[in-house]
Design brief:
Elements: E1 2-8, H1 14-26, E2 32-36, H2 43-52, H3 56-79, E3 86-90, H4 101-114, E4 120-125, H5 128-135, H6 147-158, E5 165-168, H7 173-189
Parallel strand pairs: 1-3, 1-4, 2-3, 4-5
Helix pairs in contact: 1-7, 2-3, 5-6
Length: 193
Amino acid sequence: MRLIIVDGLDGVGKDTHALLIKQRYENKGEKVIVRSHPESDNFYGRTAKKALLGQGKINQLKASLFYAMDVLYSIRRYYRRPTSDTLIMVRYLMGTAYLPRRLTRIGYHFFEKLVPTSPYMFFLDAQPEELVERIKQRSETEMFETQEAFLKVRSKALDLTAGWYIINTGQSVQQTYSDIEKILDKLDKTPAS
């Protein structure tokens, strides 16, 4: 099974591009599952989402803990017992960038050893000012969706992207997806080791 990871800050277009990637492989006759965390089909995801819509340290802690549990739930259910040709995980490892800076790298390396990784790892990136403008178009705002938070989290996340493909989403959706598709074409031709 092909595991594709699409990660990045809120507002960069992770879900949009995950659906385009899904369509690519479905057009080839593959069965594709997309898991976009936090998911609403389980207790962990619903609890993480509720905490993200709140404020304060307790909600930050709850959001982090239940987000991690939601990702582990998805791995257990869809990766350990594969039912598809391709599994796309949206919001996966970079959730550790929301931890305090002194814990970010430790958390990332801990989860990197705990969860499956892949050659297909995409970090979607855009400038914080642009993300704030995109978020304003939504009906609800999460606790980390401010320019100040984006600046801090983006800096920490970019420090963790060794081995990731960094994709600029500050361009059109079509151009961004074209950049992703070139990498997918190359990776799909590389024999699995």
